[in-house]
């Protein structure tokens, strides 16, 4: 019942709103072209997969913070997923695919993306939990897991409605993945010696805010540029 404990609780809720919303974007992007009935199934199975991944990762959360190169690998996957979501669907390639196949293809995309997003989410929550001290880290991490579930469920349904009405949300969602990829890279322990650092809470050091923002902007623009380039190339080839 210390102030540090409740501060960590507030931080975890904020992390869930931000990163849980990112999971919702991924689920909505992957399911946007499914029929309405299958969209619900895609969201349901995608959310179920996200929850299972969190249950598995929760036991490794505090250790993951110290694993070099993990965030770099995750960032590369996020960039690839963001670019892929910007590409138009090939009508000829999918003309003979059953609706159920499309559903499971969307669910597979959700699971891959959720794995990366869950890593980022759990790592962030574990970092906030560590600040509380007092041996309450795992309790706080589990609390973060519980809070994230309704955010993913409700958030994905809201985002998918927005994408139907405003297609630009698809582009913004893909760029959001690029932003997170950029910030994940500079936060990897393996790059600590080469990344500008500044004083954080207590004696802890963290990535410079300006450098972190710059990395996010570069990641977002990279996804947009590569996606547009591939779209133009596909248009020329067809």
TrEMBL record:
One of its GO terms (cellular component) is membrane. Keywords: Membrane, Transmembrane, Transmembrane helix. Pfam families: TerC (PF03741). It is a multi-pass membrane protein. The chain crosses the membrane at residues 6-31, 43-62, 138-156, 168-191, 211-231. It is found in: Membrane. Belongs to the TerC family. This is YjbE family integral membrane protein.
